[in-house]
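Listing 4. Sequential folding, example run.
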Amino acid sequence: MFKGFYTVGSGMIAQQRRMEMLTNNIANANTPGFKAEQSSIRSFPEMYLSSIETARIPTENGFQMKGLSPVGPISTGVYMQETIPLFAQGQLKETELTTDIALVDGFLPTDAETGIQGALFFRLEREDGREMYTKNGNFTLDAAGFLTNATGNYILDENGQRIALQNDGFRVTEQGVIMEGETAVATLGVSFAARPDMLMKQGNGTFVTEDGEVLPGTDDATYSMKQGFLEGSNVDAARSMTDMLTAYRAFEANQKILQAYDRSMEKTVNEVGRVN
């Protein structure tokens, strides 16, 4: 009976966490460059049950020997193992702002071992001087004339240096070269992650590597840039709402089973266990 409580409780916790993930996806349906998260729900290892039985051996002293009689396996519940961002390209939205730049995926190599497609990112400088990465091209110029993102992190060029500009009247070519008039000032830095599923999400649409190392250049990957555009969120709002309903129904079903267990325990204590 108590094993049933734990199994049902683990199912409710897993669905609650899935609901929180889906709610966050829907809340960021209009956030530029946001990558929807997907959950992975796994079962705990099954437990194999056996009953202990006593057999009497026909000897003079009536020796007894204990043995195991197989009952069968029992599930020990489920858990949400991890959440993995979906790195598919979001739709481009025109803003007509010169500081908005969309990174458009071209050919992205696929990892031969895992079959996972790589992903491209803008390079940013963290507060500690190390790099982090984003698909959100909603940039701006700070008071000192450096190109930054919405949270004040510096945008880096292909050499890992900050980009200083005179004003927002610059032009960005499809290759990512920033032009002030006829002068090439810098080239926007783009990095390639062969295993984007190994990146860690930091909030505000940014990612870091697990070991803090710098991602390499684009290698065989191809891309283009569109100034005055932003890559939108890749959240499918309709599907997310459907998944939320499914998670809610699963939570509700587990809740009803838990209530049935509770009534059974109450009956056992108050009626079966009553001493007359």
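-- end of first protein; second protein begins --
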Amino acid sequence: MKKRLLTPVIAVAIVSCSLFGCAGSSETTAMESTTMSETQTMAGDTEMETTTSPALSVTNEEEYDEMFTNVDDTKQYDLISLAKISPNLSTFATLAETAGIANALTADGKYTIFAPTNQAFSSMPRAKLERLSKPENKAELIKVLQLHILPNEVASTRLSDNQRIKAGEDQYITINVDSNTRAATIGGATIMRPDIEASNGVLHVINGVITTTPGTGITR
């Protein structure tokens, strides 16, 4: 079965077609991959003001179905402010600020964030997680986080099986949707709390850190 190609994941790219394709085409036209230097420009200077690594949690403090239930109107918050409301997303919010991309995600526009919970980050070796939080490894952290951001607003209902996102040279993020339960996974992480609307996009809570797969063997 032919897999549909989605727009690459990078918040500062210019999108020439809608995320799910231009009219008359079953496969989107991929944007050129943004280089790390361009991403760093979006994120700010690579030098951080402090050399102290932030404290990171790998423990969830509330059940998935309890997340954001205490918020009357999530649309009054931008995506980063919304992420900060849930204690389950404290590590993601902290890393976004450490990487310098938080300001971009508080700006006007429409974005999609697939936000890993604190516990999701526990699948990553603790030493690697702590390394990513250090200022000198900011470029590597940006590469990890940009896999979780789309420059368009995408509801979970628009995800379908056999889609993929180009995430670099011969690297893709695969999307799978169960035909019966409609449970969706992206890059190996399952969406546990979908479609939390913010003033500038939508946030999906996921239970893992998104990873890519090589394009070898994928039908184009």
